[in-house]
Amino acid sequence: MLRPAPSFGSRRGEGGTSGHRATSGVVATLRALDVRPSRRLGQNFLTDPRVAERIAAVALEAPGDGPILEIGPGLGALTEPLAASGRPVLAVELDLRLAEHLESLLAPWPNARVARGDILDQSLGALILGAAPVTIVANLPYAITSPAIAWIVEQGPRVARALLMTQREVAQRLAAKPGTKEYGSFSVFVALHAELEVRFRVSPGAFHPRPDVDSVVFTLTPRPYPGTTAEERAEVMHLVRAATGGRRKTLANALGQGLEIGADAARALLERAAIDPGRRAETLSVEDWLAVARVEGARP
Ligand code: SAM
Question: Whose CA is closest to atom 19 on ligand 1?
Fold first, then answer.
């Protein structure tokens, strides 16, 4: 179930009064490392230690001593409080200069280590040994937000929970309800594969460089949509993607074109699923898509 919380509203987020000293510490570290924040790598570093502590506290609130995987640790704002918990922490960083810095920063914590590389090229099984479910923590780099979330969800039950921070608009798309302008194929994907709960909002002042927009912290707990099979979920995504691009078309026209079956066959398919072919694709709930997928899947 998708649970967007009221924190998308206009309430002031965390980090609006982030200390100048914390920001200058990050700036000084970057200068010492001769690193200019890279837009391509989504390098907006957290400077407000209160926000970092709050994120780490949410990550650690579930009982247990399972491993923690951090995606994109950067300068270690989240990694340090996570490592201090004593839980095994593995931080995967693509920027080798930052990975090297982090290795020395984490030296006091033998339970924490750094792996260098692109998270999207890794398999969780190869990164973290043992069967204990993993908690994932990330202030996600913007450029890989969607593939990283897909990567997390695809790990299935190996992931106990992910605690993620993204731009507010991304979180809104993930948690969107049918019929809203934010609702799209990624909203359906998340609803099919995970439970999302918005926790709190973070202001641009909590980062360096300062982004243009607010961020949102939310948990994502992978779970299959109740009562569905893997084939049904795959079929739903096939249908949703086929209908994408037809935002101003009727569902029958969009699906007829996307599935290359023509509008008449698409209309017949939708009528068998008891879905009005005149609706727009962006108004269909997960249950509606499942009804179409089950009729489509039953075709000889
Ligand atoms: N966690 C740090 C913080 O909160 O201050 C840094 C967050 S910054 C938004 C994103 C980090 O992800 C950067 O350190 C960047 O180098 C790293 N990164 C970008 N793409 C990555 C990838 N594909 N795999 C692993 N790390 C990546």
Answer: 41
* CA distances (Å), origin 269, targets 107, 172, 184, 240, 281: 61, 31, 21, 14, 14
Spatial CA neighbour of 140 closest among 112, 119, 115, 117: 119
Alpha-carbon distance 238 to 243, whole Å?
9
Q: What are the DSSP E strand ranges found in 232-272?
A: none
Contact 201, 169 (CB under 8 A): no
Ligand 1 lined by 290 (C-beta under 6 Å): no
What digits encode the pLDDT tens for the residues 91-145?
A: 999 999 999 999 999 999 999 999 999 999 999 988 987 888 999 999 999 999 9
Tens-digit pLDDT profile for residues 50-106: 999 999 999 998 777 899 999 999 999 999 999 999 999 999 999 999 999 999 999
Structure tokens at 216: 């949102």
Burial 247-265 (b: 16+ CB within 10 A, else e): eebbbbbbbbbbbeeebee
Q: Residue 69: CB partners within 8 Å, gap ≥ 6?
A: 89, 90, 91, 92, 124, 127, 128, 134, 135, 136, 137
- The count of other CB atoms within 10 Å of the CB of residue 110 is 9
- In angstroms, what CA-CA distances link 147 with 20, 121, 239? 34, 11, 20
Centroid of ligand 1 to alpha carbon of 70 (angstroms): 9
Gap from CA of 72 to ligand 1 centroid (Å): 3
Q: How far is the CA of 74 from the centre of ligand 1 (A)?
A: 5
Cis omega (within 30 of 0) for bond into 209: yes
Look at residue 136 and give its three-state secondary structure: strand
pTM, 2 dp: 0.90
Question: Are 133 and 158 within 8 A, CB to CB?
Answer: yes
- How far is the centre of ligand 1, averaged over its atoms, from the C-alpha of 237 (Å)? 28
d(CA 258, CA 196): 29
